[in-house]
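Internal ticket #5521
Category: modeling
Description: The requester needs a full-assembly model to guide mutagenesis choices. All entity lines are attached below as received. Residue total reported by intake: 893.
Assigned to: D.W.
Attached entities:
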Amino acid sequence: MKEQLQKDFDNIIKNLSLSQKDIEIKKFFLESFVNRGFPNRKEEDWKFSDLSQIIRKNIGELSFYTDYTSTNKVDTSVFVDGLEHNKIVFINGRIEKIDFDYEKKNQIEIIDHSEPIDRFNNNNSLSDLNNAFTNKSFKIVIKNGYKLTKPLIIYHTTNSNIWSKNINLRLNFELDKDSSLRLIDLFNDTSEKNFLNIFYNFDLKENAILKNYKLDRRENRNIKYSFNNIEQEKNSISETFILSSGSNFFKNEINVNLKGEYSSAFVNGIFSLNKRKHHEIRTIINHLTESTKSYQLIKSVLEDSSKAAYQGKIYVNSEAQKTDGYQLSKAILLDETTEFNAKPELEIYADDVKCSHGSASGSLNENSIFYLMTRGLNYKEAKELLINGFLLDVIEKITDREIKNLIKNMIGVKE
Amino acid sequence: MREKELEKLKDYKYGFSTDIENIKAPKGLNEEVIKFISNIKKEPKWMLDFRLKAFERFKQLKEPNWQKPKYPKIDYQDLYYYSAPKSMDDKPKSLDELDPKLLETYKKLGIPLQEQKRLNGIAVDAVFDSVSVATTFREELNKHGIIFCPISEAIQNHPELVKKYLGSVIPTTDHFFATLNSAVFTDGSFAYIPESVRCPMELSTYFRINASNTGQFERTLIIADKGSYVSYLEGCTAPMRDENQLHAANVELIALDDAEIKYSTVQNWYPGDKDGKGGIYNFVTKRGLCKGKNSKISWTQVETGSAITWKYPSCILRGDNSIGEFYSIAITNNHQKADTGTKMIHLGKNTKSKIISKGISAGFSDMTYRGLVDISPKAYNSNNYTQCDSLLMSNKCGAHTVPYIKNKNSNSNIAHEATTSKISEEQLHYCQQRGLNAEEAVSLIVNGFCKEVLQQLPMEFAVEAQKLVGISLEGSVG
């Protein structure tokens, strides 16, 4: 892999017009990645999902360079119908379209820059990889007091032109005071055997509101890693919803720093897996000051040799008195081949706090099925109804009505 | 000066050391020392081979460092691995022949052997440093065919049992500290309960580290044959010293078909002084194997002492319908640190486990519950319930929960709950209104918080434990 990395890296340097300083920075990160390699199960955070092995088994040799000189045709058929929205379109890792048609132009600023992301404190080698190989990254600033009228959908599309590639993406959002953004990440893959490595950073200033919905629905054989870092100041609110279902492997990491008083973070997620898929969600909520709140709810339905893992951590620093932290994960294992692993973790250094977590996993309750069958449903209907109700619980947590309906339609959950 | 000493003594009731001449093995860890230990114990060859095999393995192992409480590097070459009171050379035949000073020590500890022999009905196998000093009630136990003796005697007299079971739950190839123990363990208790015997009394061991600069490495092996029952108590204290001492014991329990073992620990090793100086490093490996059908192993622990406690009493539920239980109270004060919890490994069908853990941290201490529940694909219809609650008593301490939950069987259910909170002002106010002072009020509330676990302890222990809970938290309110 080392020679491949070096060769691809030289290619990137050749094709990008970078300053000498930037090249030095990239070289530094490349070296760090070469030394560390892909994360493996020896690292505590990757205990349940050995990425190094998963890549070796499913992809084999990766290549890290993609030629971005030619444009890709934007396939409009993937666009969401029935919901007016702004768009950013990535095709095979290249930004093809940025479109804020519905918004006031002077309220949104798009800055083309790529500062390295070591300040994320993300301790894994994938940020090194991202730093070394991203070709272009944008910073999107929502200005003081501006609330986007329509949601922004980011289309992550890959097509059959690429295979065995590593794609690195990075976006940086800044939400100024009193601003708000609704953001949907929609994954559409028709490619196979690629590894997507996505890093987002959000800076939420006072009173800012961020709602991020990550929807991985479409069946595909790609491997994905996504990392969200969210910095929150006073009174800000972040809501993250993850639908983890389509990809062969997907690990979502959410790191939230609640730095301002009365800031709050909500993370909700659904795993709906089959066909030997292996997904993971890892959350770290850092309560760093007084009177902050966090809430997490993760539900999984697993069948057909699939595997899900949830690692959730609530950290409460000694200044963060009056913290309210809650975390719940529930899993239904539909057949004997499935596996659910959880590591709900509390790390608390303040005494006036209210923190709790719960985790439960097991099979569908046969008594409930029996009850429904006595009311005239057949076994399959009864099962579906129960799973439906189980998942609906999470979807009901979505605070945006328009998007809630969109997601309900997408996964066919009925009310 | 004297006043200072007294002050110190007040803090730790068991903080005295006894002046008795010791025989020590030369300092350091090497094959010679292991041979020395084996030789002095007049062990057969297979035992020495067992030790050397473990030592071979030990040389390749690295000291783990994933635990939460970090400690300064231990120099394993700077420890004495064997230390025995000299007066033991010609073994006394009865208690009356014992060194009076030894007996005095036990008296201070609150286990007067003489008294117990007549009144108490508890058989005590007291481990003073490394050699068992006296074993009472052996005759009574003999009548039932129960073997309860120091493990070094068991190696001589019951080699077939020791050979069969020693290392069957904690193999010589286990982790760093367990392997170290396998190589250099000096003594410990051995109990065998024959088929269909219900042990008529509680078996008990009092460990005590006396000589300075010695690591204490005991090995306990308890075997409950088919249909038998035994309840085993273990209590620990150590004298006050400024340097840190290492305690790395191994405890192996084996329950065959329909057998039940109940293992209770009250651990009150010296926790170090108010500034965190000194104290015991308690790195113990405890593991029980439910080998037979319908067997049950239950761990109960009250952890109030040690500078660092790092242990996970575990159950391997291999037999169908077997049950594992873990009840724990861990209290840390001042600069104490604890990283404790359990592992429940479900292998057999219809296995059940229950974990109740209560953690209380005060002062500058740090407490971690770390647990594993692993239900394997073959463990049909298994169940686990886990509850771990933490109570924080100051804003300088920490309480953490790190459970690992692995469910690989769809017919099995796992439920886990954890909460962290502090004693509410209302509760305190209510108690104080009724005439309790702040400290009594806290002690009452804490005892209520721990009740679920205290109930699991045998009578004699429960009283002591309840007192300990109170003493450990003294001065932490305000």
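Resolution: model delivered.
Comment from assignee: Residues 20-36 of chain A form the longest helix (17 residues).
Ticket closed.
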